[in-house]
Amino acid sequence: VVGGTGVQPGAWPGIASIQVTLKNGTWHICAGSLIHPRWVLTAAYCFSISGDIINWDVVIGATDLAHLGPEAQVRRIQRLLVHPHYVAATGSNNIALVELDQPVECSEYIQLGCVPDASVSVMELRQCYIAGWRVASARAQRPGLVLQEAKVRLLDVQLCNSSYGNGYAGPVPPHSLCAGYPRGGADTCQGDSGAPLVCKDSTDDSFWLVGIASWGKDCSGVKRPGIYTSTQPYQEWI
């Protein structure tokens, strides 16, 4: 996340780090959101570089990837379900489900995210936030391994396709959300694919998992807000 601040343990209890172990170490590749004790919702793009999930892990309940702490739980990936109509070239239907090999135990550090149903007016939600880690070796002692968060605003998708033409010129696919600020300053970036976009409910203190970080141009650039897969249209598929 660009333009964010570090968070305290437990502040984002539903976020997951999706990691792959290679010859040169274990690396954070993408983020995701726990929506069931055995299922994580993320972006299909995360697995476009490798369909082999044997060496992949999912870390839940962690804030600092260099020091997981006793509250973190690590699971293997048992099954990967990429949306059948995902198109990598356009980013359409950039959504996937990851089944864990064992269910996680919920705690104050690990909780489930809620996908909004049709009754929620997503575009009317005003308090929205993003979170994620930057690309870095998941076990290395270096900055960027502590979870970052930033407040963002939902922007009209048509505006992203028209007024922001210099940035996107129309390729924002259907079932997308546009979030950030026209002036830039806060955005997801490399390593944040699949990261959650959450918005506070207008009637209580709960949060809805409204989006999944999909893509963008020039992280946090002027008139180039982040593009997120909207979860609401996929509720039935999920």
TrEMBL record:
Keywords, comma-separated and alphabetical: Disulfide bond, Hydrolase, Protease, Serine protease
Database matches in SUPFAM superfamilies: Trypsin-like serine proteases
GO biological process terms, semicolon-separated: acrosome reaction; proteolysis
Q: What GO MF annotations does this protein's record show?
A: serine-type endopeptidase activity
SMART domains named among the record's database cross-references: Tryp_SPc
Residues in domain Peptidase S1? 1-238
A Pfam match is: Trypsin
| Gene3D superfamilies, per database record | Trypsin-like serine proteases
Write down what this protein is called.
Acrosin
- In its UniProt entry, the species of origin is given as Acanthisitta chloris (rifleman)
Q: What is the lineage of its organism?
A: Eukaryota, Metazoa, Chordata, Craniata, Vertebrata
